[in-house]
Design goal:
DNA-binding, homodimer, 2 domains
Chain lengths: ~200, ~200
DNA sequence: CGAGGTATATTCACTGGTCAGTATACATCG
DNA sequence: CGATGTATACTGACCAGTGAATATACCTCG
């Protein structure tokens, strides 16, 4: 059976990831993925039952690395809670300025497959976002924020909103605007005793 | 010359709109649009130079109606500015609960065509969102808000974020969360003298 | 008025190419 | 030997766009 560490499987997944993220799902043929991975299509179909399977695997492979990255940006940021949240947006804005940036793979896949509501890739995308939201909520709750759940949802809305808007306008400054809005909302939600003098950035 | 009121052209555009919104761009063939419009493919190509042209026309046709609708929701809402902004989200949440709702056509098209940065449809989508943002900014400025520009951008982020998140989770309650965040941000931005007692909704 | 022409609008049938997925066979290795 | 993995070559469906012909409406000039 093909293990997840299987080198051929990994090669396929790497190629699929690069192409699906860069071009979109329906724009990329299975032939193109196989060629890019340096194998034949039949070999690809030996490792993945169908293209839909491959798409789901592409997103599944991005789940953990993405979450880990976000958490690291948060953990390594200086300052109080609002600053640490804003740091995520700051790092994202930097990434969004790279010419190969194409928004959030999870959201773009969902948008493209919106006519197939039960598609496994969409479920993986939804689960990914839920995990991120749950982590935020827990972080906020630990900080003594009463409305941790609502605040986490607001952060998610700003985050995913900035993915969409920045992709549309190709203007990463929206991501910084989102970061400032996030900072303000977190600041306002902090319990009074923990609230430092609100420092307007810039 | 084919006028915009041309009945055949309108039929094509109606069919294209329905199909592209429901299924996505690349998932819908030109044949499918033609059949749905009750004409032959060649007739479609008489009225539109290419599929890309048709896609652009589909979005262009949605531009004004969408803006008008949003403005009407705002104008007809009771209450002060924060409530009027929140009303847009409330109406949108209601729309999002309809089974045929598939998010924002502009954003989904942009996401799907993200590998074609100069595509005319993307330009139309970007212009549409800019118009909405400009209208919001003007409205906020008239209300005496100093940071009208930044606030308008924040509203856009929340709005487009809720399109993305609600489409992903198929849970329209995120749109109400976005509305509450929008209300809070507008409330906080109002000049003191105009600020009524902030009323937490619910 | 009316015959002939011209631009508009539409149809059927087709092309060259791509797509997801498969049948069959060959190889490698424990 | 036989399980795992890979390759060549194929299938039937679909796709964007086109060629050639036809119908309709209007306009010009005898």
């Amino acid at each position: 059976m093909a293990r997840s560490s299987d080198p051929t499987r990994t090669r396929i997944l790497t190629a699929a990831s690069r192409l699906f993220y860069a071009e979109g799902i329906r724009a990329v043929s299975v032939d193109a993925v196989a060629e890019n991975a340096g194998i034949t299509k039949k070999t690809l179909y030996y490792h993945f039952r169908s293209k839909d399977d491959l798409v789901a695997a592409y997103l599944a492979a991005r789940d953990q690395p993405n979450l880990v990255l976000f958490k690291r940006w948060f953990d390594e940021a200086e300052g109080a809670l609002p600053d640490k949240v804003a740091a995520i947006f700051r790092h994202l804005a930097k990434a969004a300025r790279h010419p190969k940036w194409r928004g959030c793979g999870f959201l773009r896949t969902t948008a493209e497959l919106a006519n197939l509501p039960g598609h496994p890739a969409i479920k993986i995308g939804a689960a990914h976002k839920k995990k991120f939201e749950a982590w935020l909520q827990a972080t906020f709750a630990e900080a003594g924020i009463e409305s941790a759940g609502e605040l986490a949802r607001q952060m998610l809305l700003l985050l995913d909103g900035s993915f969409a808007v920045v992709l549309l306008h190709r203007d990463a400054s929206y991501m910084e605007t989102a970061g400032e809005a996030a900072r303000a909302l977190v600041q306002a939600a902090l319990p009074r005793r923990m609230r430092a003098a609100p420092q307007r950035s810039r």
